[in-house]
User: Fold this.
Amino acid sequence: MVTIRRMEKLIGYVLLAGVLTSAAIVLFGGALYMWRHGSTPVHYRIFRGEPSDLRSLAGIWKDFTEGSGRGAIQFGLMLLVGIQVIRVALTGVLFLLNRDKVFVVITFLVLAMLSYALFFAGE
Amino acid sequence: METLPYLSLVAAGAFAAGIVGALTGEGGGIILVPMLVLLFDVNMHNAAGASLIAVTATSTAATIAFLSQGYTNLRIGMFLQMTSISGGIAGALLAALVPVPALMAIFGTVLLYSSYMTFRRKEESEPDRPSDPLAVRFHMESSYPVLGGWKPYKVFSVIPGALLMGVAGIISGLLGIGAGAVNVLVMDQVMRLPYKVSTTTSNFMIGITAAGSAGVYLHRGYIDPVLTMPVVLGIFIGAAVGARLLMIVRAKPLRLFFSFLVLVAALEMIYKGVARGLAH
Assistant:
């Protein structure tokens, strides 16, 4: 049981580090965007939809590395979403340590659905 | 309005939603979406997209806070996650097909229901019969910390619970909320889990379900980075502050206030949805 307790602690630390990193990136991207566009008028009454580069993980990465503020924010947000994948995977490791075969399979199924959603669903 | 002052106000609003969400245990989404739509004049799709990302943030934060305390039942959580995330993906795909006025009316109805449930939450004793055989076979029974030790609990209606979690997932993906209130209701009233186990397990789950929906929302172009930024940062800090206030603030009047707030939002969402539906 000691390993399980330590594993739970580890999960906590990994999640905290992930959340703080993603918040820092979102803040950085936000500051960058505000500096460039802070005084432009804005409204969200009508739905316009994001440009195609901000709709896919590959496009977001490209925008981020090119120094776009919106790209950096979106990258930070997707990091936050990606942490959920890590969260599920680490819970799977916890089941594995417990020799809980059925739940390792269940976790794997959840992981597969989540990955499908992040990469393909709705495209 | 200019971008900077507008987004500062959105951040302040999300901060408040984070505090109230943490204090009432309902998560932020149920207040966040109506606030964005009604106060900040944001369209449904962008509001729901921002809220989904906010839900992943608050759910992760709650997992960090509660995992080592022993309330969260990871087995039940992961089992229910199968149907919950399927529903979350399906609901998100449906969001593009349902007309916006109908979405608003559905949202209002879910809010009405949440308001009612918050208002009349009742505690019931555990039934005398043995656990669902499926729960026994999958070792879902567990115990949770109470004053002076650990109290074992039973688990009922695993399959009906899982199916209803699928419905909760659809609502979550369709409206961009965590649907924590529906989750808790299913675990508390159908599966008969202790209330604290229900809320912490739901908190663990909603971020994963929301992440599934967020994938669809991203590909459809519903997630606006500039709008989502102040929402996520605001609600995250608000939730952290709210969790600390939890020891000081009295729960009962707060629940009544929250219930009233959600009721007002519900009526306005339904009114706006119907008005917009008739105008078309």
